[in-house]
Amino acid sequence: MNLKSTIKKLKRDFGESVDLSFREACLAERKAVFVNFEGLIDKELLESNVIKPLAALTDTSEESIKNAVYISTPIKRERTLSEIEKNICEGDTALFLEGEEGAYLLSAKKWERRSVEEPPTSSVIKGPREGFTEDVTVNAALLRRRLKNKSFVIKEMTIGKYSRSKVLVCYLSDVAAKKTVDLVNERLSHIDIDGVIDSSYLTKFLEDDPASLFPQVGTLEKPDVVAAKLLEGRVAILSDGSPIALTVPHVLLESFQDSQDYFKRNTRVTVTRFLRLFGAIIALFLPAAFVAVQEFQYQVLPLKFLITIINSTNGTPLSPTLEMLLVLIIFDILNEASVRMPRYVGMALSIVGAIVLGETAVSAGLLSSPAVLVTALSSIGLYLVPDDVGTYSILRLVFVATAALLGLLGILFAVLLLVGHLTTLQSFGSNYMSPYAPLINRDLKDGFVKRELTEMQNRPEGIANQNPVRLKKDEFLRAHLQEEDSDEK
Q1: Is 121's pLDDT higher than 60?
Q2: Cα 447 to chain centroid, rounded
Q3: Whole-Å CA distances, 204 to 122, 207, 386
Q4: Residue-wise over 153-171: b if at least 16 C-beta within 10 A, else e?
Q5: CA 13 – CA 328 distance, rounded (Å)
Q6: No. of H helices and E strands in the chain?
Q7: Does residue 216 surpass a pLDDT of 90?
């Protein structure tokens, strides 16, 4: 093979990219060229453990080259230029020798990466504080450190025509149901897309009903939570470049659970979960109920409360429906603006928008104070279930519009439609409303009312798995629990 023509073709294929490095060398009196991207390699490792040992060789046989190089990843020999170019793009160094077909692929990869730290959106008071990073290899290692068992399997695939993103499918081979693993692999293998920049690109290809407002794929930032999901029989998907792990199946109840729930007393956890449920109900139905009562069923309010509302809304130029929709939209605009602005400017914007703008609008008589108060309470309730904020923001607008047309009866009709949709929704064979629809008594131990860990002997029935037993009580533990029960009686 003519080395000069090969290098010329490489330069042409890569569009004369300035970061593509061609380092010429002489190995055992043979001309050689090392080709790599400068920003993807460890230059010191390449110099000390690859180039210097190879420069000292007296012959360039394949065995001599493989024995001389000191790197952890085995050297590969690739003969087709297209495959060599793919590996160069992934960070490998290609060694071309004059007169030899193909190239040797040497792995001396290194690039800047974010350190493992606590995720900004999943901070905890008690429990592990490690979060995923954008490096999929680091993320896989964080899971491997928590699941030290040969049953923990990680399968790799490459998705994206241009990005060639590494995607890892993680599961416990003797726990996760084979049909779930096969279905995940099947759906991922059929993805034909230009690039996968973040794991969220994969969600629509994984969901059973992509048109639904409710997510059927879990999104997590903490390895301890993902490990707990894997122990229940779920499958995790990691994507290179994303600090978010995907888990399937995903059910609605998971939105009301938190990683800290398993490090607190059960009574406190139960109260907290009901608070989250109450917050979601307030977020969805309070604005709609406020509109319905003002437009149609004002007689359901106590007289003193009704007089207070009438006095507060007297003189407001907008109807209750338009007023509520306007306030909801303004709050959503302020929320989006505060997220996209620099942190300190965003904090100032929140104060100006929520206090100054709201107070001025009420004082000017453009908006009523009850409408602002109801919207504020609804917005606070949204963030008790942070994973579904977008879904509930849209639904509360729908409920307000329905209440404006049919009053409380319209809200009831919309609730029936919503419940009907949720009961028919599935995620990889699991019912979205599990364990409440259909009712699975055994799984209620980790529902809104949380029981002791020692009582959760079996994995959730609502999640398909091969091994239902996760806790075996020995004689000592049984005697200890019986003694506690007798003491309580």
Answers
A1: yes
A2: 22
A3: 23, 5, 20
A4: eeeeeebbeebebbbbbbb
A5: 53
A6: 18, 12
A7: yes
Q: How confident is the model at residue 403 (pLDDT cuts 50, 70, 90)?
A: very high
C-alpha distances (whole Å) from 14 to each of 19, 195, 356, 441 are 10, 18, 55, 60
Q: With a cut of 80, say whether residue 441 has pLDDT above it.
A: yes
Task: Report how far residue 443's alpha carbon sits from residue 466's, in angstroms, rounded to the nearest whole number.
Answer: 16
Q: Torsions phi, psi of 332, nearest 5?
A: -65, -40
Cβ-based neighbours of 62, under 8 Å, separated by 6 or more: 77, 104
Q: Distance from first CA to last CA of the chain, Å, rounded? A: 87
CB 135 within 8 A of CB 242: no
Sign of the C-alpha dihedral, residues 214, 215, 219, 225? positive
Closest CA to 106 of 94, 117, 121: 94
CA distances from 478 to 441, 454, 460, 469, 484 (A): 22, 10, 22, 16, 10
The structure's pTM equals 0.85
Residue 189 neighbours by CB under 8 Å, 6+ apart: 157
Contact 229, 428 (CB under 8 A): no
Q: Specify whether the CB–CB gap between 256 and 273 falls below 8 A.
A: yes
Cα–Cα–Cα angle for 249, 255, 259, nearest 5°? 95
Of the candidates 222, 187, 181, the residue with the CA atom closest to the CA atom of residue 201: 187
* Mean pLDDT, the chain, whole residue set: 86
Instruction: Report domain extents, the chain.
Output: 3-106, 136-250, 265-427
Amino acid symbol at 213: L
3-state SS class at 171: strand
Closest C-alpha among 304, 364, 353, 298 to residue 329 = 353
Q: Is 266 exposed, middle or buried (0-12, 13-18, 19+ CB in 10 A)?
A: middle
| C-alpha–C-alpha distance, residues 59 and 167, integer Å | 40
Vertex 197: Cα angle to 194 and 203 (nearest 5)? 90
Q: Which two tokens stand for residue 180?
A: 């779930």
